[in-house]
Each structure stands twice: as structure tokens, then as C-alpha cells.
């Protein structure tokens, strides 16, 4: 103890001196210090990280912070901003870069504000830290789905403005709420609004998915989800009795028939004749039956009701009326004392009754311009695909607007909705260049009929 204090005493003046030196060195180089901090704050990567750090996962997405962040970025770049609200506390941010010919249909770039929930304990790095690993991987929920495109649109426009590029067609960006829970209070209400009609959208880009190879993936349609619930009714009876047409028996018959249908289509996929997203999928998601008891279920009773739920996905090429007939006649026939309910989670035909898909051949001039712009950016497009799941793009296609799903991520594992979702910095930065090419080409495209 004594030794200690005696040894420490001479240190005090030295510490004092060091502090003085430190203070003077800071005050001597204020601009240098400031410059370093500014660089840290102002790079495309740190701006991306800033957006990723806003927690917009369900069930309580912080839409207000996300909108205020994007709005300040947009104002800095010099874009017009407008906040719309089609449902309480669910803002939609609309940005505009006016073109020199506002009479031409505009270009709309879309991105959703929300993300799916996370299980933080399963992550290597906290999901809202936007931690960048030494090899450049930026970890965050939303890094692929779809906060990357949200910021890449802005960065591309920032660069184009710095190059004094002047768009001919007006360019809009929409940041919409609730895509991950169906888009009913977001894109669905947006496309039905006067504000949307006033935009006079000619072509639209929405989110796509990562590609594990060198080619960019592009999607011309989504599958439309249906929730199917089938119910069977029958005479209840003692568990020991053998008799026909119990509710369970009738339900099991349907499950067998549906399983066979599922297998026949899955065989087509396994044989390589169609992509997973090109066939109807029907997957059982729940079974509900039995008479509850304090310890589980009454075991000596055959119940009078039984129910099953299925997730059905319809590609745009499927005929919804034929599927409905199949359900009514084979999967839940009234003659087997069954009922059914179909909950359609979005449209399957456009306002003209046409399948919800965007043409990807030369009959669609927007496709040709888009494809050419990718080539000019040094990229290559993979064969256009139907998306196995669903995005907001279906609402725009429903309005008859050609819409492509595109997120410029090559050589990236597909981690949307997964643990440890990440995007590499180099891939992100290349995506900005790709959008510079795409946005400038689309907005410069002039043809009287489109
Ligand atoms: C349907 O229900 C009726 C009335 O309970 C019954 O008589 C008939 O056998 C049932 N048919 C089938 C196929 O379950
Ligand atoms: C483009 O594709 C559509 C649908 O597959 C087809 O009907 C049309 O003939 C094609 N047009 C051209 C120019 O290839
Ligand atoms: Zn998404």
C-alpha cells in the first residue's frame, strides 16, 4: 500500500503534461479531425449502414424514423418529397426528380420500408448493428430485403445529379409500408389512389432476389398466394366403432388427393421441366381436429369436425377458375360433407383480365431498354423468372404497369428472411453503378406510344 502510493505520486505531473499535449494537439488540428469524421459519415457505405440501423421489423416497425432518414437524404440530394398516409401511422414516402418532358409516362422505383422479425440470438452480429466484417460483409436485417435497393436508388440519383444528368422522363421513388404483411395498407392502397394515378407511371422496378452466380436475376411475375381451409363434417362415434364417413375419414381422403396433386407437380420440377415458381404449389400448414381433454385429447371419440389449412401459390399461367373447380369437386366436395374457404391474398389477373406478368421480349420496349442498360453497366441478365413468393409488384402489374423485380446482387447467398442476412460492400457499390445506367437509360427513353 505505502509502496504503491509512493510510486504513484511522481506520475501526476506527467499525466498533467500528457493531457496538455493531447489537448493542444486536438486544438491544433481541428479541420483534420473534422474531415475524418465527415468522411466516416458521408460515404455510400456508412449511409447504407445508417439506414440499416433503423429497426423496421414487424410487428412494430419504426416507420417514422425510416421516413425521416430517407427524406433528409432526398432533400440533401435535391429531390422533391411528399409523405402520404393511407393508414394511420403507416407513412409512404414519395420522392420525385422531375424530367424535362413531364408529358411522358414516368419511371417508378419501389422499395418497402419494413422487414421481417429477427431472432437476435441466432445472429453472429446484432441484426441492427450493420456491422461490417473485415472482408466487407455488412450484416443487418434488411441488407438484402430490401434496404439495399432503397439506398442504391438514392445513391445512383445522387451520382447522376453530380454528373449533371438531366432526365427526360420524371423519376419517382416510393417507399411503402407493410410489404412483408401483404401490402394491404401500403402498395395496395397506393395504386388505388389519385396520387398514384397522377404519377402517370409507364414502367416500374421493384425488389428482386440475390443471385449466387455472376448473372443478375430478374422477375417478370409473382405467384399469387391463396390460403385454403377445408373442413369435413361427419357423424361422431365411439372410438372403437368401424363406420363410414366420419369427419376424420373424409378429411384424410382429401389430404391424400391433395398430396397426390402436389407430388405430380413436384415431379415436373424434379424432372427439370419447370422451375419451382412455374407450377402451382400446395403445402399443408395445419391440421385441426379432436376433442380436447385436460391431458390432451379424448381418445375414445371420433370427432364430428376436422379441418386442414394449405398454403397455395398460383403462377400467373395457372387458370384460377380451373383450380377452384378442382377444389370444389375433388378437394372439398359437398357430397363428402365438406366445405372450403379460399382467401385470396392479392390479385391474379390485371384490370383487363390478363395474367399478371410483364413481357420480357422485344414486344416490350421497356424490357429492351432495361436489358441494354444492364449490358452497358458490364452486367449480364439471367433468364427472366417468376418469383416463387410475392412482392408489391403484383399490385402495380394489376394496374397494367410493366414491372420488373430486380435487386442487383450477384455472387451472394440468398439470405432474405434468414439469420445473418448480409450484403458485401463491393456488391452494394456495384449495384449503385448498375442503377445509374438503368435509371439514366429508362428516363432518356423517348417513344410516343410508351
Ligand atoms: C353426409 O352427411 C349426411 C348427414 O349426416 C350423411 O347421411 C351422409 O352419409 C354423409 N355423407 C358422406 C359422404 O359423408
Ligand atoms: C413476346 O411474348 C409474348 C408472350 O409470350 C408473345 O405472345 C409475343 O408474341 C412475343 N413477342 C415477340 C415480339 O417475340
Ligand atoms: Zn422484400
Automatic annotation (TrEMBL):
UniProt KW keywords: Metal-binding, Signal, Zinc
Catalytic center residues: 114, 179 (proton acceptor)
UniProt cross-references to Pfam families, sorted A to Z: Peptidase_M20
Residue spans crossing the bilayer: none
Amino acids binding Zn(2+) 1: 112, 145, 207
GO-annotated biological processes: amino acid metabolic process
Domain of life: Eukaryota
Note accompanying the cofactor annotation: Binds 2 Zn(2+) ions per subunit.
Molecular function GO labels: aminoacylase activity; metal ion binding
GO annotation, cellular component aspect: cytoplasm
Chain sites annotated for binding Zn(2+) 2: 145, 180, 417
Cofactor(s) the protein needs: Zn(2+)
Protein name: N-acyl-L-amino-acid amidohydrolase
Amino acid at each position: 500500500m505505502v509502496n504503491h502510493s509512493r510510486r504513484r505520486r511522481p506520475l501526476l505531473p506527467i499525466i498533467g503534461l500528457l493531457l496538455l499535449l493531447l489537448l493542444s494537439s486536438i486544438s491544433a488540428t481541428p479541420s483534420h479531425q473534422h474531415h475524418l469524421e465527415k468522411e466516416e459519415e458521408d460515404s455510400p457505405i456508412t449511409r447504407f449502414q445508417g439506414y440499416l440501423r433503423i429497426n423496421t421489423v414487424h410487428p412494430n416497425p419504426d416507420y417514422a424514423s425510416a421516413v425521416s432518414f430517407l427524406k433528409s437524404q432526398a432533400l440533401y440530394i435535391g429531390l422533391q418529397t411528399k409523405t402520404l398516409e393511407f393508414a394511420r401511422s403507416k407513412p409512404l414516402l414519395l420522392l420525385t426528380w422531375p424530367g424535362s418532358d413531364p408529358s411522358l409516362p414516368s419511371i417508378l422505383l419501389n422499395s418497402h420500408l419494413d422487414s421481417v422479425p429477427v431472432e437476435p440470438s441466432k445472429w453472429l452480429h446484432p441484426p441492427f448493428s450493420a456491422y461490417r466484417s473485415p472482408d466487407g460483409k455488412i450484416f443487418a436485417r434488411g441488407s438484402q430485403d430490401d434496404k439495399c435497393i432503397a439506398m442504391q436508388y438514392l445513391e445512383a440519383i445522387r451520382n447522376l445529379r453530380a454528373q449533371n444528368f438531366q432526365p427526360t422522363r420524371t423519376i419517382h421513388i416510393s417507399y411503402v409500408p407493410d410489404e412483408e404483411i401483404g401490402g394491404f395498407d401500403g402498395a395496395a392502397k397506393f395504386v388505388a389512389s389519385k396520387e398514384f394515378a397522377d404519377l402517370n407511371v409507364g414502367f416500374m422496378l421493384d425488389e428482386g432476389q440475390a443471385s449466387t452466380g455472376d448473372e443478375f436475376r430478374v422477375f417478370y411475375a409473382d405467384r399469387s398466394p391463396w390460403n385454403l381451409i377445408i373442413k369435413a363434417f361427419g357423424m361422431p362415434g365411439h372410438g372403437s366403432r368401424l363406420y363410414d364417413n366420419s369427419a376424420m375419414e373424409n378429411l384424410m381422403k382429401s389430404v391424400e388427393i391433395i398430396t397426390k396433386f402436389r407430388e405430380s407437380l413436384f415431379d415436373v420440377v424434379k424432372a427439370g421441366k419447370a422451375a419451382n415458381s412455374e407450377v402451382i404449389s400446395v403445402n399443408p400448414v395445419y391440421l385441426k381436429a379432436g376433442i380436447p381433454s385436460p391431458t390432451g385429447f379424448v381418445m375414445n371419440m371420433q370427432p364430428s369436425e376436422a379441418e386442414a389449412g394449405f398454403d397455395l401459390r398460383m403462377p400467373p399461367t395457372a387458370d384460377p377458375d380451373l383450380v377452384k373447380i378442382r377444389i370444389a369437386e375433388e378437394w372439398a366436395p359437398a357430397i363428402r360433407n365438406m366445405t372450403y374457404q379460399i382467401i385470396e391474398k392479392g390479385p391474379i389477373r390485371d384490370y383487363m383480365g390478363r395474367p399478371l406478368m410483364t413481357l420480357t421480349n422485344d414486344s416490350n420496349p421497356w424490357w429492351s431498354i432495361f436489358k441494354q442498360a444492364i449490358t452497358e453497366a458490364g452486367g449480364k441478365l439471367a433468364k427472366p423468372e417468376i418469383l416463387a413468393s410475392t412482392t408489391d409488384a403484383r399490385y402495380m402489374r394489376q394496374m397494367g404497369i410493366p414491372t420488373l423485380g430486380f435487386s442487383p446482387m450477384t455472387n451472394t447467398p440468398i439470405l432474405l428472411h434468414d439469420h445473418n442476412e448480409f450484403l458485401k460492400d463491393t456488391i452494394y457499390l456495384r449495384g449503385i453503378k448498375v442503377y445509374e445506367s438503368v435509371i439514366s437509360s429508362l428516363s432518356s427513353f423517348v417513344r410516343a406510344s410508351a
